[in-house]
Amino acid sequence: MTWIRRGAAVFALLTATSCSASAAGPDAEIVVRDVHFAPADVTVPAGSTVRWVFDDGGVLHHVGSEGEFDSGITPDGSYEHTFTTPGVYEYHCSVHRYMTGTVTVTG
């Protein structure tokens, strides 16, 4: 009977940990769909994480900012970057150069 109680306690602990970890999530999310970023421009405080979600039916995309971050070319999934320094970060898709946006990081 003791192993059942221990198993239940471990399950409860794992469930609570999983829920709290997923509840935090990114500070901003940008969806890549219909060959554009939505929203293209976001503002977050320093230390924030921005997530780009590639949801464009398998179309290849890329998110990058020269010398700052680079998602690599991908047809799906997501990419996250944490911004630690205030400033304005312009980003683009190297596959579709007209796809551009900015992340403004406040102090």
In short:
The chain has one helix spanning 2-24; strands at residues 28-33, 36-38, 41-45, 48-55, 64-65, 69-70, 76-83, 87-92, 100-106. With 107 residues, the chain is an alpha/beta fold. It has one domain (26-106): Cupredoxins -  blue copper proteins (Immunoglobulin-like).
Notes on the protein architecture:
By secondary structure, the chain is an alpha/beta fold. The protein has one domain: Immunoglobulin-like (Sandwich), CATH 2.60.40. It is built from 1 helix and 9 strands; from the N terminus they run αβββββββββ. The strands form 3 sheets. The chain has a 4-stranded mixed sheet with strand order 2-1-4-7, with no helix packed on it. A hairpin with a 7-residue loop joins strand 8 (87-92) and strand 9. The termini are far apart.
Features:
107 residues; four-stranded mixed beta sheet; Immunoglobulin-like; 21% helix; alpha/beta; three-stranded mixed beta sheet; 9 strands; disordered N terminus
Write the layout of secondary structure elements.
Layout: H1 2-24, E1 28-33, E2 36-38, E3 41-45, E4 48-55, E5 64-65, E6 69-70, E7 76-83, E8 87-92, E9 100-106
Parallel strand pairs: 1-4, 3-9
Antiparallel strand pairs: 1-2, 4-7, 5-6, 8-9
H/E series: HEEEEEEEEE
Q: What is the CATH first-level class name?
A: Mainly Beta
How many helical stretches?
1
How many strands in all? 9
Largest sheet: 4 strands, mixed
Quote the beta fraction. Answer: 35-45%
CATH architecture: Sandwich
What is the total number of structural domains? 1
Strand order of the largest sheet: 2-1-4-7
Q: What's the alpha carbon Rg, rounded to whole Å?
A: 18 Å
> Structural class, please?
alpha/beta
Shape: globular
Span between N and C termini?
A: 55 Å
Could you estimate the helical fraction of the residues in percent? Answer: 10-25%
Low-confidence stretches: 1-22
Mean pLDDT over the full residue set: 84
